[in-house]
Structures are given as C-alpha cells and as structure tokens.
Specification:
342 residues; alpha+beta; Thrombin, subunit H; Pdz3 Domain; 2 domains; 6-stranded antiparallel barrel; 6-stranded antiparallel beta sheet
C-alpha cells in the first residue's frame, strides 16, 4: 500500500512538472513568435509613413570600414550626432542618397556617450524634434535606417529615469602585500583568468601607472568601463610580466546564468548603462543600429537610441536632454568630457 502511495505521488509530481514545462514552453514560444511577427516586413511596412522623412536625416556611421552605429543629422551644414563609444578612427557617414563622406569628431559628451561629427556637405535635411514631453508608456516607436521601412519597431516600456552605472571588475580577489596588491584568488571564467593572471601575482602597474595599494588599484579599475582594455604589469615571483586584460562587470560574476540570458538574441552595446536619464523601450536593435533617431508615429524624433541593454530592452536619450547638448557641442568645437559613468 505504501509502495503504491509513493508511486502515485511520484507520478503526480511528474505529471505536474510536465504540465508546467509545456505551459512555460508555450508562453515562451508565444512571446518569441509575437516579437518575431512584430518585426516582419508586413508589420514594419505599416510604419512606412512614420519614417518617410526621418530616413533622409539618418546616416550610417562607419569606423575603419565597419558599420558601427547610426547617426542623426542635426545641422544642415553637415553636423551629425551619434554614439561616441562606437566611433574610433577613419570615420565615414553614408547618407540616404548614397554618398559616403569622411567625418571628423567635433566633440564628445562622455556622460551621455554622444559624439558630434562634421561632414563636408550642405543643405542636408535635419531631423525634426518632437515635443519636449516624452511619449507615455505603451506608445509606438520606430527606428529609421536608410531603407524605406523601419529597422525595427517597439513601444515605450518605462518612462525616462536614471540608468545606474555598472560596476567594473577585473575578476580577482586581492589583498595588500609588501610589494603591492596581491592576487589570492582568480575567479574561474573571469576576464582575469582568460588573460592569464594567476594566484600570488602582484599587480604593480595599471596602464603604466604605479599602483601601490589595494584601495588605489580598485579605485582605478572602478573608474574604467566594462569592456575597456588595460595593460597590467605583474610581479610573478622574481619575474615581471605584462598582461593585457579586458575589464568585466560585477553582474557577470555574480549572476552568470542570468547575465548570459541578457544577451540571447544578439550582441549588446558595450556602453549600455550609466546614463543620467534615458527612456526605455522594447525595440530589438543591434549595437550598430544605435546612435540614430527614435521617432513617434508622426515621424518626430523623440530621442536618440543610445544602447541595446539586453534582449528586450533598448535605451534612448530624450530629445529634451539631447537638444541643449547638441547646441553646446556646436558652440564649443572641443571635446566636452565629464567623469566617466557606465
């Protein structure tokens, strides 16, 4: 009798687990299918009128021959706004009419990750800014590219708010030692482990700067951004070794599986946090599709797409914030930097 009861109990648990898995799979499939259906040609084509004008004011930004971002024409005499962290060298802008022109960086605004570029062109169509108030949650939005239909569409998810910076880490546990900060543990799978840092290494320099204390080294790392490349000098026994490493973020170490799921569906923007204010929307973008305008159904630019944060979240800087920054960059003609935030 007891054996039969245990069997029935186990069978009931198995059936319940199976039902839960089927329901979960069904919900996931439904969500995935809805997302895919929303970005089919047929659906995006319905938003053709919304991007009819903005596509002429959108550019494709290339750096070193690669497509790295989109940009928004903010001055008829050749001013283009884009995502600063993606543009490095040999910058070009491809216009809607097919022209591909060299661009120079006029200035950057680190806090918002914006760069103002200048190309040699006149009488360009500029983006038309929307109202100062951001659209309410649930409003439809479109991201124009250089094609006649949007790159992607979505809705406002969360009203503008501060996006906290990510905590930058190397991936080691340190202790003070006589000769400098000493590694007593390397986190498995971390960027430090991939770079070849080992237990008992003493880190003496970060990018050529002497680091004598544990607190000083931690502070120097925290001032960088996840994804930054650094060169370390370490004392390994009696031998000095140079190690090139990429900095990671704390969430990568503390929430490994959850962090991995964030990136499902495509790459994320390297700089995707630390903005004083940003509008959250659920448009599916690739990192090289950020930097350009985000428009409402009237074709008005309500913000600049600034990052793909995870598989269902993108951020845009509200127009009310961007407009004065553009004016500031145009007037200064020099680099406008603030304390790095990420």
């Amino acid at each position: 009798m007891a054996k039969t009861t245990r069997y029935n109990s186990a069978l009931a648990r198995l059936v319940l687990t199976t039902i839960c898995l089927i329901v979960s799979a069904g919900l996931l499939a439904k969500s995935t299918n809805a997302s895919e259906e929303r970005n089919t040609y047929k659906v995006k084509n319905a938003f053709r009128d919304a991007v009819r004008a903005p596509i002429k004011s959108t550019v494709r930004v290339l750096s070193g021959g690669r497509r790295v971002a989109l940009g928004a024409i903010v001055g008829a005499d050749g001013y283009v706004l884009t995502k600063a962290s993606e543009v490095k060298q040999n910058i070009e802008c491809q216009l809607f009419d097919g022209r591909r022109l060299k661009a120079e960086i006029v200035g950057t605004q680190d806090e918002y990750d914006l760069a103002l570029l200048k190309i040699d062109a006149k009488d360009l169509p500029t983006i038309q800014w929307g109202d100062s108030d951001p659209p309410p949650v649930g409003s439809w939005l479109a991201t124009p590219g250089l094609e006649t239909i949007p790159i992607s569409i979505g809705v406002v998810s969360v009203a503008p708010r501060k996006i906290e910076r990510r905590i930058t880490v190397l991936g080691v546990k340190l202790q003070d030692a006589e000769k400098g900060p000493q590694v007593f543990e390397v986190v498995p799978g971390s960027n430090a482990a991939k770079a070849g840092i080992i237990e008992n290494d003493i880190i003496t320099h970060l990018d050529g700067k002497r680091e004598e204390s544990l607190d000083g080294l931690i502070k120097a790392i925290r001032q960088r951004r996840p994804g930054d490349k650094v060169r370390l000098k370490v004392l390994r026994g009696e031998r000095e070794v140079t190690v090139d490493a990429e900095l990671g973020e704390l969430a990568q170490l503390t929430h490994g599986k959850e962090y991995f799921q964030f990136g499902l569906g495509g790459r994320l923007s390297q700089r995707r946090a630390g903005f004083p204010i940003a509008l959250q929307h659920d448009t599916v973008l690739q990192p090289n599709q950020c930097g350009g305008p985000l428009v409402d159904l009237d074709g008005k630019t309500i913000g600049i797409n600034i990052a793909r944060a995870n598989r269902v979240t993108s951020y845009a800087l509200p127009a009310s914030v961007v407009i004065p920054l553009v004016d500031e960059l145009k007037k200064s003609g020099t680099m406008v930097s603030t304390t790095p935030a990420d």
